[in-house]
Specification:
Length: about 250
């Protein structure tokens, strides 16, 4: 399949790096931090109990599902309050969490594939998560980062996709959204009028009843190869002329 791609929006968690190891590390780092700074909190909320509290906060505050940082702070506040700890510990505890959250281990293909893609077309990070690309160290590959928290709504809402297209100065039909999640990434992008690329690292079968991705690859390397084969020199020149004029 060949079509015009003038820009890419790119998911982060489970597209550039797996999130599960990050989540496990966060749990352990926070517990060790509490052991040092608030032993009573650590005793009342060991790893499993803190995880349960976080999941309950998520269920009880659906209006904050676009703001994972606010939900994390709510969890930490409740744990500190119920263990009679000082709320002065809230922001230091959050910073311990956030430092661990931004320690990522990339998929083997991710960095090289991202660099190749970013040399071809403007790339915007589009994520429901709260990773900070400056802290992670790859912000230089991106035109900008748009998170659900900053936008006020999360994928698969059409508005976040369309806001990214507007900032990229591209029609949605000329923007390719790339991500791992069937509903949040592929279906959400398609409903908003973008092209969609499913990064299917486990080579699963496609199961969505109504929507199919425009592209499907197991790695970002394969997407970079597709762009090399299908993006013409004329497209490349137009994109970069616009970038320099902006």
């Amino acid at each position: 399949m060949s079509f015009t791609v003038r820009a890419i929006t790119l998911d982060l968690d489970d597209t550039l790096w797996p999130f599960a190891p990050i989540g496990a590390r966060i749990d352990q780092v926070l517990h060790e931090w509490m052991l040092e700074h608030s032993p009573a909190t650590a005793a009342m909320y060991p790893v499993a109990a803190m995880r349960e509290l976080r999941e309950r906060s998520f269920r009880d505050h659906p209006h904050l599902h676009h703001d994972l940082s606010a939900l994390r702070r709510l969890t930490l506040r409740e744990a500190l309050e119920k263990s009679s700890a000082s709320l002065d510990l809230l922001e230091p505890a959050y910073e311990a969490f956030y430092a661990a959250r931004n320690q990522v281990e990339y998929y083997p293909d991710a960095l090289d594939g991202l660099a190749r893609i970013a040399r071809r077309v403007p790339v915007a990070a589009l994520s429901n998560g709260n990773a900070d690309l400056q802290r992670v160290g790859i912000a230089h590959h991106f035109a900008f980062q748009l998170g659900a928290r900053e936008h006020g709504a999360a994928k698969p809402e059409a508005s976040i996709f369309l806001a990214a297209c507007s900032r990229l100065d591209c029609d949605p039909g000329h923007v390719l959204h790339v991500g791992d999640h069937v509903e949040m990434d592929v279906a959400g992008a398609a409903r908003a009028g973008l092209r969609s690329c499913w990064i299917n690292r486990e080579a699963r079968g496609w199961e969505h009843a109504e929507i199919v991705p425009d592209l499907q690859f197991t790695t970002l390397t394969a997407l970079a190869d597709w762009l090399d084969a299908n993006l013409t020199d004329r497209d490349f020149a137009q994109d970069h002329t616009r970038d320099h004029a902006a």
